[in-house]
């Protein structure tokens, strides 16, 4: 049994001075087969602790239904870390930010219009309590006071960046204590007055988050906590990417210099991220500082380990600084994981999304006078299709979507009219012939906001559809969650390249399927050159979104998702496919990253939080 405490400005582990040198690895962004590889690389860099958030929406994807296996097996991840000789910091706060969908909150919360997030709203607290009753008993046996590896547990996450309900923070603290969490509790916030005032409790250890200006940040912290140990719970050593932006990178020597400053001042730290991983499926988040900005599938973060787990120049720089301060590697660096080019794959089978038979396999229709957001129909992720009939004639009128969340493709009698996007919601011109025409609007949830005051982010169409000033009513709505079981039943038709119809960037959405043989298994990367926007699956596993808007130009496929022999690849292409209907699996991702042997010249892009 080990106990982490503090006294006279320093941590004590079983009564002896101790410094936490932690790196962040999120179990839910890494396939379980690679957890050991990433954790050993953490040790090989000189770290003694791993930190992970716990994502509520991974564990309760549907209300009252809990998942704690596969990529959601947090218990096995923590147990493995302990077996490898690492301590663990756990951050189970209902809200985690993390550039993760809805900051980890489950989308079904938004079905309750009256529910207020992250405060002492009784309805919200009742949902948290039920979840904690399922989660916390799984963690208690893993606490260091019970012989496990967990040294510390977070009460709430960067709460001072959101609110100032101290009663809520006390409720969260008391909820952990009453459920048997008897290790060190802490909060984490940015180093500003309002964040430290709003996000901390006097009787709970406070930590700070920043990416630079260590001396200045610690000085502000000391204005509020003069006796507690210095702890940077998030040292941001890189940054994440949004679609339609450049890839964010930061010079390794700059990261090493700030790390040296932090350690020189006697602080402990958690490096966010040591290994970023991947936002598989529909779990990427989004930001809204000035406008809505969805996060890419890759969560590479320009971290010391790449998205696919290779050490970088930053890894070497960090290891050197840790060694200078007495934190040496405690195991050899594991061998690199094999990467394989499987070559081009022909996707010659197509299943039309809008055919009646396929829509019936994917969803149940709901008739509604008014449009409804996803959550009111029990849907959290994926796409939602709104269909109605509009009477004509109408000539060159304007179609408006009020409250589009987040990207709507509009079709009239099966012909694409255009796209209306949340970040630039310009109306489309529409003309209706005499009689009537079918209007279809396919809306994509591109990720709920994960940070700041706008996290309440329902999806679909929130307010209505109007043509000029006339609101449109009487809709058929279909929730397209795109679960693997439903995808397997789609009706595909094989089409040759010679017979395929010409497609444009505003073509009709459809599923494309193909297969390839694998004689040996290794990591690979799916390049989507020539394709436009959509979602990819390998052997039924949702790899995430692709989009030629960049900066990401390939999807990472971990080797454990493949199998020897035949492998099935499916794309939902929203606009139009490559002329050859081919896609390529390569062994180099070309994501703007550098390895440990590259000559890296990387410029840091200042983050949004500073």
Automatic annotation (TrEMBL):
Beta-galactosidase 1-like first all-beta domain location: 374-480
Every Beta-galactosidase galactose-binding domain range: 509-567
PROSITE patterns: GLYCOSYL_HYDROL_F35
Reactions catalysed according to its record: Hydrolysis of terminal non-reducing beta-D-galactose residues in beta-D-galactosides
Entry's Gene Ontology molecular function annotations: beta-galactosidase activity
Superkingdom classification of source: Bacteria
EC assignment: 3.2.1.23
Domain Glycoside hydrolase 35 catalytic: 11-323
Catalytic EC class: hydrolase
UniProt keyword Hydrolase, yes or no: yes
Similarity remark: Belongs to the glycosyl hydrolase 35 family.
SUPFAM superfamilies from the UniProt entry: (Trans)glycosidases, Galactose-binding domain-like
Matches recorded under InterPro entries: B-gal_1-like (IPR026283), BetaGal1-like_ABD1 (IPR048912), BetaGal_gal-bd (IPR048913), Galactose-bd-like_sf (IPR008979), GH (IPR017853), Gly_Hdrlase_35_cat (IPR031330), Glyco_hydro_35_CS (IPR019801), Glycoside_Hdrlase_35 (IPR001944)
Keywords: Glycosidase, Hydrolase
Protein known as: Beta-galactosidase
